[in-house]
Write a structure and sequence with these properties.
By secondary structure, this protein is of the alpha+beta class. It contains 16 helices and 18 strands. It has helices at 13-30, 42-50, 62-87, 95-103, 150-156, 168-171, 175-188, 195-215, 234-248, 360-381, 421-424, 489-494, 503-509, 581-590, 600-608, 618-643; strands at 218-220, 225-228, 265-269, 276-277, 282-283, 302-303, 331-332, 336-339, 346-347, 430-441, 447-448, 463-474, 480-486, 518-525, 531-535, 539-542, 545-546, 554-564. It holds the Pfam family DUF4246.
């Protein structure tokens, strides 16, 4: 039987499928199979069939039937992909066409891991941003700019090249120093960076230096990463270090080393411990918890049901069909509520895993970090507001070589989008997920190998932005946080180009044909005292670092704040009373409940006999954390695959 799909241009899918299967059935009923000459290699077919442990024997006609099924399947997929290409006015198939064709029917979900695209590399694992925290695509390219060219990226170089050193904002107005930077950039770069380009970057730096004078913060790259080394003073950093000490100075057996970190990452406050557990956690039917009385409310409320599969599924674009379920049906990190109606932020519900009575001073300091982060979040999130972007790269129908055009003189953005979280959400307030963690090294563990590429959370949390405060770095080498983003590969795939001329992909997009449309933006140094914010549509990855002096211990300590999309409201610690059994037991020891007349040992026995599954013990909470981490690890792999799912696919004419 021929594998000809028999699909015609403009033919609707349903019409094609009807006639296609009629032909397949007719052919199967009338053809006489040739057992001696199967259409596919017989040995290979038998090997595939034997990979199923339930297969004990293979009948003579089984490989023929298997080959026929493969032949029909390939014919149908080819036809479906052609219909996708035809709808885009193209006559050549791309991998994106196949991916989109597969995404249109759940019957092809079994192909999630073998669709023709680059496989996920867990050495840099991670999401489609639409699957976690944002409804917008990554980068300004999707708002009108075709791509981010390499030459400007090399000039900016994260914090390298021209934009290096904290003193840059002071020195940028010195013409002698600026001229030195320009000459060094042109001498080091072999990609055709011109003097006009370096002039443009210097002018942009001077524009940003003026913004820094007003705000104390500056944006990095052409993206939305914002950093400040001055919004939180030295005195505050020392206060925070002291306030965190009680969480660190505990017996070694009680230290909570992050699972799988080989005792290098110490969790002080982590949202994966005692999260919201669907089908287990209790949620208040009315009212809210308070900081003062929340522990007394432990055990109140009704058990939250497990979301249905329909509730956990979203209609995803074809390029991330592999994560149709970006929601977890098991867990959700719990944010605290933050009142921003007055000049100072005020945390109004407990921070999960941070005792509200024992750590009042730390609560007050975290409020100050929220205050400092809000203006930076405004800067990070404002560019994601939908607006018209003027393309800085214009395309022509044909070319013989790549010619990098000289830039026009730098002009500050006209009416940049404005965002004021305090003003816009002063009535509703903000929801913030808090994490405190240390990376601790020593003579026996000299190097931290870095993290995975990821965005924060799943769609349950609706995280839209992150703030990271690096409040203590001791005896470690330079540490960097790297960023990468998607570019719109489909735009390039639709562009006119000459036969075999693919070089423009590297020069304009920084990518190659048949490779993912992912751009490595650069890295930001995570120096002590720095506050860093970025939107949750950029993947980020902690880069490796080690000890400066390998004979002494060293560490890096961070406070992380994950901002929940203020347009959304998720269940928070205002709705979910504390679940920590230890907190509950401590309180019962302190108040007169009748149990206080019993010896302490007997009271502990009574508490241990609580068998309704609530509150949750630390032992069980750690078991649930392992389950949560396994689920999110699998999600990150699928997300990273989807993030890299759209490839540049310039077919030959």
């Amino acid at each position: 039987m021929s594998s000809q799909p028999f699909v015609q241009p403009g033919e609707p899918l349903n019409d094609f499928l009807k006639s296609f299967w009629e032909r397949q059935i007719h052919a199967a009923e009338t053809e006489t199979p040739d057992y001696r000459h199967p259409p596919l290699p017989l040995a290979r077919i038998k090997k595939v069939m034997k990979s199923d442990p339930d297969v004990k024997m293979i009948a003579a006609d089984a490989p023929i039937l298997f080959c026929k099924a493969c032949e029909i399947f390939i014919a149908e997929i080819t036809a479906r992909a052609f219909i996708v290409a035809d709808s885009n006015k193209r006559r050549t198939l791309s991998r994106a066409d196949i991916a989109k064709a597969l995404s249109k029917s759940d019957q092809f979900d079994f192909l999630i891991d073998i669709v023709p695209r680059e496989e996920a590399n867990f050495g840099g694992s991670s999401t489609n941003p639409n699957g976690a925290g944002s409804s917008k695509k990554v980068g300004k390219q999707d708002q009108g700019t075709p791509g981010v060219g390499d030459a400007p990226a090399e000039l900016e170089g994260g914090e390298g090249g021209v934009r290096s050193g904290s003193e840059v904002l002071e020195q940028v107005f010195d013409d002698t120093i600026a001229a030195k930077w320009k000459s060094e950039a042109m001498a080091q770069d072999a990609r055709g960076v011109s003097e006009a380009m370096t002039d443009w970057v210097i002018d942009e730096l001077r524009y940003k230096a003026k913004i820094f004078e007003q705000t104390g913060a500056v944006s990095v790259f052409t993206g939305d990463v914002v950093k400040s080394d001055s919004v939180l003073p030295e005195s505050f950093k020392l206060e925070l270090q002291a306030a965190v000490k009680p969480l660190e100075d505990i017996p070694a057996k009680d230290k909570d080393w992050h699972p799988g970190s080989k005792e290098k990452v110490l969790d002080l406050v982590h949202p994966s411990l005692f999260p919201l557990v669907y089908g287990r956690s209790k949620v208040l039917e009315s009212g809210r918890t308070t900081l003062e009385g929340c522990i007394a409310q432990c055990g109140e409320g009704v058990v939250i049901p497990v979301p249905s599969e329909e509730e956990s599924t979203v209609e995803a674009p074809y390029y991330n069909y592999s994560i149709k379920q970006p929601y977890s049906r098991k867990f959700q990190w719990l944010p605290c509520e933050v009142d921003i109606s007055s000049e100072k932020a005020k945390i109004t519900s407990y921070i999960n895993n941070l005792h509200p009575e024992k750590h009042k001073a730390l609560y007050a300091l975290i409020e100050q970090v929220v205050d400092a982060a809000i203006p930076l979040w405004n800067m990070s999130l404002a560019p994601t507001i939908a607006c018209a972007w003027k393309p800085r790269i214009h395309y022509v129908g044909s070319y013989s070589e790549i010619v990098q055009p000289e830039p026009a003189p730098f002009r500050p953005p006209i009416d940049p989008p404005q965002l004021n979280l305090r003003e816009q959400f002063k009535e509703k307030g903000l929801q913030v997920i808090v994490k405190l963690a240390n990376i601790e090294l020593g003579p026996e563990k000299k190097t931290y190998m870095g993290g995975t590429w990821h965005v924060e959370g799943q769609l349950n949390e609706h995280i839209c932005a992150t703030a990271l405060y690096y409040y203590s770095n001791v005896n470690i080498t330079d540490s960097t946080l790297a960023f990468r983003q998607q570019t719109n590969a489909e735009d390039a795939n639709e562009m006119p180009y000459e036969q075999d001329e693919h070089a423009f992909l590297t020069d304009i997009f920084g990518c190659q044909n048949w490779q993912p449309g992912v751009q490595n933006v650069g890295g930001v140094h995570t120096r002590e005292g720095r506050l860093l914010t970025f939107p949750n549509i950029l993947q980020h990855q902690v880069q490796p670092f080690g000890l400066k002096d390998s004979t002494k211990p060293g560490h890096r300590k961070i406070l992380a704040l994950f901002l929940v999309d203020p347009h959304m409201r998720v269940l928070s610690t205002a709705n979910v009373p504390p679940q920590q059994k230890e907190w509950w037991v401590e309180r019962l020891h302190e108040v007169r409940t009748g149990l206080d007349k019993l010896p302490r040992e007997l009271r502990d026995e009574v508490f241990n006999e609580v068998r309704d599954g609530f509150p949750i013990s630390l032992k069980e909470a750690k078991e649930l954390r392992e389950e949560l981490m396994e689920e999110r690890k699998a999600f990150e792999i699928k997300h990273d695959s989807a993030f890299k799912g759209i490839q540049f696919s310039l077919c030959e004419h």
